[in-house]
Design a protein that fits this description.
By secondary structure, the chain is an alpha+beta fold. Helices cover about 25% and strands about 30% of the residues. It contains 17 helices and 33 strands.
């Protein structure tokens, strides 16, 4: 086993990995950007190093900086978690060249599965069923149109070859929509994966997204841990997961078939560690169920927790042990699924505004607890959910004897979760889990796309309680971080409250407020309310694309611009028909929530 491991990630997964290392008796090293200086994963690790300011490309995504910290700290291995460098084959290869173990699969497996077209070729050759479509990249919209007409038909899915996690995935229901879908998927592929190539697949109507967890070691052992149902999605990104899938959808025979597909896929690329085979499960009325390989995520998944709850197997620890050269501690016969687990992603998003990102600072913060409740989080009271990163605040996971009881437990836990100062998906989860569609195990896709239903989830935020006045002579315990040569040290001071400015002047930064506010405020609305002629930004972000110009005539619902925020593209549409008389926006520029995007007037100048 390793003696020292660098955790090259942030947020809740960094905390999760540090805890696993603690239990294995392995020292941990954290890294952090300036924005994450006071994040829980920094204080939780044995030591921590500052990667600097700026966007992720200048810190968490900097291979040179990560490897430099590994050398300085004496780390024998690097765990990338998920996101950032987790599925970066050149990074895995650079670790190997530096004599540092990459806790994950070999670079060759990441490369093979990282390209969706290459993965489809490999799986087809291995006898694994794939969704009908192309196995070669499609060069142009014209070529895509020919292929769609002659081979696949409409609707058709356009997917980035290097995509994943819902990025680079667009659907064209008709020929007229193909160009926009092609360009959108290619643009996201270039932006998020540095690969603009796309391919086409048959679009399956309302399929279930069912995936299987696999574990593999360097000794040829590969097992699966059953399936997870990840069908509740917004913008092709999961927000609720469960394990196992509802029993009336995936029976034991299908479970074994799906598991075998996962094992064969992992063997085909000599996989090592924890990975996930994603698939589409289609069971049309009166039709035989079909299961198709979709892609492989060559890392630990966000939703690994529900599988841990139903199998009792610590997936993160097994991945670390496999990287250290140990054999898996379990055989396939040891894997038994017990009960039912559900995970709700508590994101800083406003469901009433079509899941618009809602970054901000957290006030009071209280996590639920009790039997069968688990919370994986990387935040704390006084922390900030930055628009620079993913909108996830925490993952709430519950377990109970069956799906119905697990649902009741989740609703209870959601009711206990208090997050002041942010608008989160908690009201959305509470509403959806109370529907008959969830009870029947449906994909709920119509609800996720029903703007009217989503708008009912806007809950007013009650005012927080006033902060109590400080008593004269009262003492406080305050925590500060001090850096020496880029390495973080924590200092505790007991006494009268210190002024933040004075602390900062001495090179120290408060790690947490001494007295966080308390109150029942669970969410706050972001963005200004414009008049009938004004279109304002519902979120803070960067103006990615402007599709109109001043003087244009637009129709209600027409796409005006695309704002990038928290790794998502958010389409902003016209609130009414008319002529654009003001358009104070430009591509590449930052925009604040509530800022004016456009003024649109009807032909007679009257408000709609």
């Amino acid at each position: 086993m390793f003696e020292n491991v660098l955790v090259a990630i942030r947020g809740e997964i960094a905390v999760r990995i540090v805890r696993a290392l603690d239990e294995l008796g392995v020292a941990s090293v954290a890294v952090y950007s300036e924005l994450d200086r006071d994040a829980p994963h920094v204080a939780r690790a044995g030591e921590a190093y500052n990667l600097g300011e700026g966007p992720a490309a200048e810190n968490y995504l900097s291979v040179e900086k990560i490897l430099d910290v590994a050398r300085r700290s004496g780390a024998e291995a690097i765990h990338p978690g998920y996101g950032f460098l987790a599925e970066n084959a050149p990074f895995a290869r650079a670790c190997e060249e530096a004599g540092i173990v990459f806790i994950g699969p070999p670079a060759s497996a990441i490369e093979a599965m990282g390209s969706k077209t290459r993965a489809r070729e490999l799986m087809q050759a291995a006898g694994v069923p794939i969704v009908p479509g192309t196995t070669e990249p499609v060069a142009s919209v014209a070529d895509a149109l020919k292929i769609a007409k002659k081979q696949i038909g409409f609707p058709v899915a356009v997917k980035a070859a290097g995509g994943g996690g819902g990025k680079g995935f667009r659907v064209a229901l008709t020929e007229d929509e193909l160009e926009g879908a092609f360009e959108g998927a290619s643009r996201e592929g270039e932006k998020f994966f540095s690969d603009p190539t796309v391919y086409l697949e048959r679009y399956l109507h309302d399929p279930r997204h069912v995936e299987v967890q696999v574990l593999a070691d360097r000794h040829g052992n590969v097992i699966h841990l059953g399936e997870r149902d990840c069908s509740i999605q917004r913008r092709h990104q999961t927000v609720i997961e469960e394990s196992p899938a509802p029993e009336w959808i995936v029976d034991e025979a299908m479970r074994q078939r799906i598991g075998q597909i996962g094992v064969e896929a992992a063997r085909a690329v000599d996989y090592v560690g924890a990975g996930t085979i994603e698939g589409l499960f289609s069971a049309g009325e009166g039709a035989e169920p079909e299961y198709f390989f979709l892609e492989m995520n060559t890392r630990v998944q966000v939703e690994h927790c529900v599988t841990e709850m139903t199998t009792g197997i610590d997936i993160v620890k097994e991945g670390i042990r496999a990287a250290a050269g140990e054999e898996l501690a379990y055989s396939q016969d040891d894997v038994v699924l017990r009960g039912h687990a559900i995970e709700c992603r508590i994101n800083a998003e406003d469901a009433s505004k079509n899941f618009a990102p809602a970054p901000g600072r957290i006030g009071a913060y209280t996590e639920p607890s009790g039997p069968g409740v688990r919370v994986d989080s990387g935040v704390q009271a006084g922390g900030e959910v930055s628009p620079m990163y993913d909108p996830m605040v925490a993952k709430l996971i519950v377990w109970d004897a069956d799906r119905a009881q697990a649902t009741k437990r989740m609703l209870r836990a959601l009711g206990e979760f208090e997050i002041e100062g942010l608008k989160t998906l908690i009201p959305f989860h509470q509403a959806l889990l109370a529907t008959g569609q969830w009870e029947r195990g449906e994909t709920c896709r119509d609800l996720m796309e029903d703007r009217k239903w989503l708008k009912t989830l806007a809950f007013p935020a009650p005012a927080g309680a006033a902060e109590p006045a400080e008593e004269e002579g009262q003492t406080f315990e305050q925590s500060y971080s001090v850096e020496v040569s880029g390495k973080r040290f924590d200092v505790r001071v007991v006494g009268p409250p210190l002024a933040t400015g004075a602390a900062a002047g001495n090179g120290a930064v408060p790690a947490a407020a001494a007295k966080p506010r308390r109150g029942a405020d669970r969410s706050s609305s972001a963005g200004g309310a414009g008049g009938p002629d004004t279109l304002t930004s519902p979120l803070q972000g960067n103006m990615w694309k402007v599709l109109v110009k001043k003087g244009d005539t637009v129709e209600e619902g027409q796409l005006i611009c695309i704002i990038e925020a928290m790794k998502m593209e958010n389409e902003i549409t016209a609130q009414k028909s008319g002529t654009i008389v003001e358009l104070p926006i430009s591509e590449g520029a930052p925009i604040q929530a509530g800022a004016l995007i456009a003024t649109i007037k009807t032909s007679d100048g009257a408000a709609a």
